[in-house]
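Can't paste images in this forum, so I'm doing it all in text. The chain is below; anyone willing to post the predicted C-alpha cells underneath?
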Amino acid sequence: QDWLKISVPTALLVVVRMCGPVVVEQDVVGIHSTDPAECKHDEDELIRQVPLLLERMNDAAAELNRLELELTGAEAKHKNALVTWSHLYDELRSRHGSVSGAMDHAKPYFDTLHKCQAATGVAREAKRQWKLQRVNLKAEEQKEAPEAQMLRTLRQDVQSCEGEFQAASKALKSAMAELQAQRQKVGTATIESARPCFSSLKRLQLDLVAAQEDVARLTLGIREAKADYKESLRELNRISDEVHASRSRCQS
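Text version of the structure:
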C-alpha cells in the first residue's frame, strides 16, 4: 500500500502506512520567526498530542491485522459449517421420504429462524460494543484533566456504536416479522411435522450461528479499527496544517 508522509513541527517527520507500524524519525528544520520563543510555544502546543496519536495508530494497525487474520479463519469455519449442514439436510431428506415434502415446505421457516438467531447475535454484540464505548467515554470525562481530542474521538465512537446497534436492532425486528410471516404461510402443522428432522440439525445449526456471530463481530471490530486509524491520521494532518499556518504567521 502507498506510504503517506505528514510533516509536523519541531522537526518530526511522520511516515505511516495502513496496517503497518508507525515510524517516527527526527529531521532538522530551521524555524525562522521574529519571536522564536512564541513560535516554539505555539508549535509545542500543537504537537503535544502527536505521540498519543502515533501510539493509537500503531495500536489500531496491530488490532486491524489481528482481526483480519481471525476473520479469515472465521469465514472458513462458517463455510465448513454451512457445507456440513447442507449435507446432513440432504441425508435426512432422503432418509425420511414421508416427511421430505414437509421438510422442503418448512425449510423457509427454519431458514428464517436461523436468520433471526444470527441477527440476535449481531444485535447483542453491537449493544455490548455500545455499552463499552459509553463506559470508556465516562471514564475519560471523569479524569481530572481529560484530553480534548480523546473526548472528541470517544464521543464519535459512542455515536458510531449507537448507530450500529440501532441498525442491528432494526434488522432483528425485520427478521422477526419475517419469521412470523413464514409461520403463517407454512402453517404450524407442517412446521411441527418437519421439526424432528430440523432438531437433528440443531447442533450444526448452533455451530453455524456461532460462526456467523464471529464473522459479524470481527467485521464490526475491523470497521472500528479502521475508523480509529483514519481518525488519528486526520488529526495528524490537521496538526500539520495548523503548524504550517503558525510558521507562516511567525515568519511574516
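DSSP finds six helices and three strands in the chain. Residues 1-33 have pLDDT under 50 and may be disordered.
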